[in-house]
Amino acid sequence: MRSPEELTIAFREAGLKVTPQRQLLFRLLHNNCAHPTADALYSVATEQMPGISLRTVYQTLNDLTSMGEIQSIDVGTGSSRFDPNVSDHHHAVCDECGAVHDVYVNQAPEMRGLNGFAVADARIVYRGLCATCSELAQHR
Amino acid sequence: MRSPEELTIAFREAGLKVTPQRQLLFRLLHNNCAHPTADALYSVATEQMPGISLRTVYQTLNDLTSMGEIQSIDVGTGSSRFDPNVSDHHHAVCDECGAVHDVYVNQAPEMRGLNGFAVADARIVYRGLCATCSELAQHR
DNA sequence: TTTCTAATTTTCAATAGTTGCTAATTAGCA
DNA sequence: TGCTAATTAGCAACTATTGAAAATTAGAAA
Q1: What CATH number corresponds to the domain at position A45?
Q2: Between helices B38-48 and B20-29, what is the axis angle to 10°?
Q3: Final residue of a domain: which of B56, B82, B108?
Q4: pTM for the whole thing?
Q5: Parallel/antiparallel/unpaired status of strands B90-94 and B118-129
């Protein structure tokens, strides 16, 4: 996603208002590679702006998603996660600690067994143990 | 998953009872490639057995899943879908009609950008238009 | 066949995640 | 400074799923 400053301009140009709540979320999401859930963002946001509503967090996340600034990802952990990295990439989820990492593949794998399906997008979710957790597992 | 007959034996051997509700679900799932949700199965089940509870459907699906007879898949459509095909395969979802199809890939793609992650499983979800829906789109 | 009991089903309440609605507030233009 | 459409907060509602407890029942044993 673009920087908070660029988003400020983009929002105004689109006829959208730049509220303190939105600015806060722009900042919390920028360069955030933690793949936070709406609720996780809400917790952090509340520290800096007590009284901000969870509804506003969801609303802003949906706005940013439909503008293509962030993407919503579902790695099967119950709630949606949000990723400011909108480049072509995939995700690896640690079954132990739940961390979600961005990963890249050389080429999207070609699928067999289905004729005439026009693929628009392919998303891969890897599951396993992250480096830290597999280290810890070794010492047991 | 195994046939209803084989499952009947397997359940009894595991000390589990074979109730009419379970037998019905065995039949509804066997050779079912529609990737139904719990609710979809409940609807069909209700026709043949009015009064069956949604809770029982969930319970039986969870039991079959933990026995490895079916697998639970999440293609981002809100609710879990259940697949009696437990071979190593992936899924293609039509953005138009919502149909979910089984697909196969030659080899799981190797991921880059993350060191030390021990991959246990990789799941690919393709999105796009199925053959039927892309046909229809052509004629517009 | 009847009895018994643990397993199962049903019912209903509860939970998590998310969205709909509305009144009150406010950004930002005139 | 005022105005107004956009936004926020608050809360109800909704979907998907699970928890808990009472009632029922499969299937082994008598």
Answers
A1: 1.10.10.10
A2: 120
A3: B82
A4: 0.92
A5: parallel
The amino acid sitting at B70 is I
Q: How far is A53 from chain B (nearest CA, A)?
A: 24
- Tens place of pLDDT per residue across chain A (140 aa): 999 999 999 999 999 999 999 999 999 999 999 999 999 999 999 999 999 999 999 999 999 999 999 999 999 888 999 999 999 999 999 999 999 999 999 987 889 989 999 999 999 999 999 999 998 888 87
Residues in Cβ contact with A71 at an 8 Å cutoff, skipping those fewer than 6 apart = A65, A82, A83, A85, A86
Closest residue, by C-alpha, to the C1' of D27? B17
Are A93 and A126 contacting, i.e. CB atoms less than 8 angstroms apart?
yes
Tell me the CA end-to-end span of chain B in Å, nearest whole number.
Answer: 41
Residues of A in contact with B95 (CB under 8 A): 120
